[in-house]
Amino acid sequence: MTRSRAFGFLLARGRGRLFLFRSLDLLPFQGLFYTHGQLVAQSSKHYSGFSRELDPWKCCFTPSYLGVIKGQKASVMVNFSVPHHRPFSSASTSTKRNPYFSTVSLDDVRHFVDILGHKSVIQDEDRLLAANIDWMRKFKGSSQLLLLPKNTEEVSKILQYCNTRCLAVVPQGGNTGLVGGSVPVYDEVIINLSSMDKNISFDKVNGILICEAGCILENLNSFLANEGYIMPLDLGAKGSCQIGGNVSTNAGGLHFIRYGSLHGNILGLEVILADGTILDMLTTLRKDNTGYDLKHIFIGSEGTLGIITKVAVLTPCKPSSTNVAFLACNDYLSCQKLLAEAKRDLGEAISAFEFMDCSSVEMALTHIEGVRNPLPTSLYNFYVLVETAGTDESYDRTKLEALLVRSMEMGLISDGVIAQDLNQASSFWQIREGVSEATGKAGAVYKYDLSLPVEMLYGVVEEIRMRLGNAAKVLGFGHLGDGNLHLNILSANYDSKILAQIEPFVYEWTAQHRGSISAEHGLGLMKAEKIHYSKSAKNVNLMVSIKKLMDPKGILNPYKVLPQSLLQN
Amino acid sequence: MTRSRAFGFLLARGRGRLFLFRSLDLLPFQGLFYTHGQLVAQSSKHYSGFSRELDPWKCCFTPSYLGVIKGQKASVMVNFSVPHHRPFSSASTSTKRNPYFSTVSLDDVRHFVDILGHKSVIQDEDRLLAANIDWMRKFKGSSQLLLLPKNTEEVSKILQYCNTRCLAVVPQGGNTGLVGGSVPVYDEVIINLSSMDKNISFDKVNGILICEAGCILENLNSFLANEGYIMPLDLGAKGSCQIGGNVSTNAGGLHFIRYGSLHGNILGLEVILADGTILDMLTTLRKDNTGYDLKHIFIGSEGTLGIITKVAVLTPCKPSSTNVAFLACNDYLSCQKLLAEAKRDLGEAISAFEFMDCSSVEMALTHIEGVRNPLPTSLYNFYVLVETAGTDESYDRTKLEALLVRSMEMGLISDGVIAQDLNQASSFWQIREGVSEATGKAGAVYKYDLSLPVEMLYGVVEEIRMRLGNAAKVLGFGHLGDGNLHLNILSANYDSKILAQIEPFVYEWTAQHRGSISAEHGLGLMKAEKIHYSKSAKNVNLMVSIKKLMDPKGILNPYKVLPQSLLQN
């Protein structure tokens, strides 16, 4: 096996897919393969075909070893220039290091070696660098210590020691977060859960899986597929993200409309508190009303209240048939009405309801190779992709066809087509998934991930479009079924004048309409100081009280989620 | 309108339904009509036919006014002897009044009159008595003050004052709880939410309802039915229970297998904290990852952390077809396998999966008038009731038939029948619902509501049966799809020797198998001191810390949920 000698990032595109990985000496490759967002990792393929398109990162590289990545240990020799940092629209407020925290000493390192053994205490510069940088390359910490605990007891001992010594820590899973929540800000000790990746048990009658927090989502899904079940969440980052991170960030994803929030699907957790206490809430019961249901405090708290080490999750049965329709609407109101009709007609079978405006579709058609509009005529104002997942192919298809006929009669849709096979279904999804990728090819992009009541969701797109006029191209698309808008604003170059036209307007508009400035990405470091746009001072004060109660020294993932001014008072 | 002059309880049975209501001077009747458990209120009917069956409460009564109850103000003249108290199997540990709490003074009453007006400050003995007693007549407080706030601000002012004055309070909704959580233990001020019963808004596209906490579940369901939606929970107590109480107690109910926990269905809450702070978490967003999701702390905390005043709930589309099958299995393992098959074959259409052992069915057949076994041959060891709710009558039926054929071929079921119409479906349900009612007719009954992993759920029934031999009849039935067992033990008379054979064995057995001693009823006063059977000391300690943080004076629903020894330290 070739060992990597150079460190860096490799980004490769192929057929509408985007890959980003980091090569690190000796670590199993599987845990080091990073993808995100709508982008799906085809990690079982090799990479020879992907060197041709490296913009917009403008790096060059020479892979000297192309191994099969998935499920095997492998490494890769990569030489390339460091890519330019991309400017982002929501930079974090500069935060000072909390002087209360200790710095890691040689004695500390020796103590961690005693707990974990030499191999799990990492001080190698290359490996530390990878763990210090988020996958968007927006945030970079300066941690000098990466710990790889192998079990619950080791995590407990680490935290017990760190709490006593006042050493700040950052819990890390697949490091696929978008808001800088999973990398250090300063010199926090990184506790990476990748080595805790065992499936503990699976109850075939009830579909209840218990596993360690470091299990990769895609691996869990592959395991469950053999048992006739699926995970209740599906993300673009599934090839790298870990279930512990999914739960810590309350990940949403593509099946949210069908299976709902993790608050409804997670049955139990094992969590290590700041002082090392092992909190066993790892029940597999569907009903348990004995006292406060504490696990919910940890779901979505982004590692600031405890480190999740084990997860019990209720998994749905695997649907045996999938159908996809691609529909055109003349106005946004029709999209809304179509959503109501689809929910009514398709009932529980609906598994996705995505929408794109004309500009979004045009962007995908223009910039993504192989993407074609399945509707024959010129562009409509809006497009909707409806997916059903059920247990009977022909019945499900008939229902979807009936929805189309009815919607056409009601004047809700102007045109529409149902995929004839899996290839066509995949080509419909390419349009939707291609939008995000296409924006990266068109120049500078300002990205926002908002939750808004569905009836006013498109209003912010129209208002921003009016504010910016010809200065930028404004796209609106996203998970309409969940009220989740992806607002993308494109211009030739990054321009502070354009940014000033967008922010804080977009946050204020969202706040005025009782929306959320972070639908599914969390707050992390990037938006910790912006929480007041979506939560009242009373809400935030109670969060701060809970944080202080559960982590009095503030060692768990500091500088994240909550405003520092409130925490350090 | 006739005014009631006498106070008391009226219990009436008719066609497998049980009614319990309290008549109180001048209050709107709708808010005073109590039912519970599997028993459904037919509150739009009058009561003339129900006097014929009054055992086992052995009270007599003479209704002098029979009004239409539902949706109208009405009252009733009732004269009857006080029914005997029934002994219960899980009596509360005797708890001393916390001497730290003040007692209500005349000045306090004047202050509440200033806030609420005379009509909402109740000191009338009869009305106080009704509010002091739980519907099971197991718990009785001695509160001298019942407050009926009409809006959020009034609740806030009440709590602000009570917190300053150190006056303990008990939040009360429909008072249909089974564990003494909704009545005072001593002289706590009762804050009843019945006057806060407005629907605030309904979003037809997304099925999101916002309403006040005092809305009665059945009324919400009736409202939604007209809009093509249903509430995601359904309870026997729906005619009286209020949505605020449902959320506070994390009510489960009959549709749990289909729509899951309230943690997944409640989108937002407005809650008043102990010091009167109005905590606005009343979002209608499906996705919102901005900070800790605080609403979950209040769901299931039984009014000990705050008083819920408004609720935003995601409501499912109303299914247009329902099918019910009644099946016989030879052993418990077959019931489990049938559950797995049903979940796989019926997919998302499954809406109930109930099981009964032979003794349970025999009990219903023997004691409930009109209940018949739809299967022609003699009794089998186990029975399963499967219900589907979907959007296509013939298709849904075909799928259920296919499940039957396949299960028969696999040897999982010995016999089975699908209801041919709604009447037959209702008669199948009568068997299941009749079990609970029948136990009341057979003598003394010890009732337990346990959650257990499905594979060992019936084990406790078999062990108890062995322990008791001929001394008692042991029934096992319940929501198999949710792992929720109703264990009922019947003997001729209440007997401390039998109880000693059951407790603490049943709790210990449940604890050993990582079950829950309260699947859906909560802990309330009855099981506050038993929490350690289902939660570890570390869990309980964290709950206590959170209680002390959020309600430092402990005024909110004292003596409930958590052990007093830990709270008063």
Structure description:
The structure is a homodimer of 569-residue chains. Chain A has 569 residues and is an alpha+beta fold. Chain A folds into four domains: 1-84, no CATH class; 103-318, Uridine Diphospho-n-acetylenolpyruvylglucosamine Reductase, domain 3; 321-512, Alpha-Beta Plaits; 528-567. In chain A, 29% of the residues lie in helices and 19% in strands. The first copy, chain A, is built from 17 helices and 19 strands. Chain A has helices spanning 106-116, 125-132, 152-165, 217-227, 243-248, 256-259, 262-265, 295-298, 332-346, 358-367, 393-409, 422-439, 459-468, 496-502, 505-512, 537-550, 564-567, and strands at 9-14, 17-22, 33-34, 121-122, 146-147, 169-172, 189-192, 199-203, 208-212, 266-272, 278-281, 307-314, 321-329, 350-357, 382-390, 415-418, 444-451, 473-479, 484-491. In chain A, the strands form four sheets. Chain A has a seven-stranded antiparallel β-sheet with strand order 16-13-15-14-18-19-17, with helices on both faces. In chain A, strands 8-9-12-10-11 form a five-stranded antiparallel β-sheet. In chain A, strand 8 and strand 9 (208-212) form a beta hairpin. The longest helix of chain A is centred in the last third of the chain and has 18 residues, at 422-439. The N and C termini of chain A lie far apart (53 Å). Mean pLDDT of chain A is 83; it is low at 1-92. Chains A and B meet through helix 7, strand 11, helix 9 and helix 16 of A and helix 7, strand 11, helix 9 and helix 16 of B.
